Amino acid sequence: MLQSVQPYLPVISLLVLALVVAIGFIKKINLGFFALGAAFILGTVGGMKASQITAGFSSSMFVTLVGVTFMFGMASQNGTLDLFSKKVVALVGKHTVLIPILMFVLSAFISAIGPGHIAAGILMTTFAMYLAFEMKINPMATSLYAKLGANAG
Prior knowledge:
This protein is mainly alpha-helical and 153 residues long. Helices cover 81% and strands 0% of the residues. 20% of the residues are buried. The model has no long low-confidence stretch (mean pLDDT 79).
C-alpha cells in the first residue's frame, strides 16, 4: 500500500495542510500544534521514522513561535491589543493611508531592538491584520508592510 501512496504524497500533504488550516480556523485551535500532529501522521504514512520527521524541525524556531503566540494571546486577552490599536488610530487620525507605513516603521523598530525579524514579523503581521480589519482597510497591504518592516529592521 505504501508504494501506491508514495507518488501522491506531495499532493496529499498539500491537501492535509489546507484541511489543517481550515479546521484550525473553524474550531479556533492552535494551528501549529495541529499541523505538527498532522505532519507526524503524514510522515509515518509516508514511511519516515520519527527521528527523520523531527530532524527537519527547528526547536529554537518552535520556542520563538510559541513565545510570540503566547505573548500575542495574552495581549489580546488583557486588552493591550485594543489599547495599542486605539493609540495607532489616534496617531494617524483620519489619514488611514498612513497605517501601512506606520506598521512598516513599528515593525522595523521592534525587529531592530532585539527579537529579530521572525518574532517581530509574526507579532506585527498579526497585529496589522487585526488593525486592518478593525479599520476596514486592505489587510494584505497592511500585513505586507508590517512583514517588510520586520525584515528591514
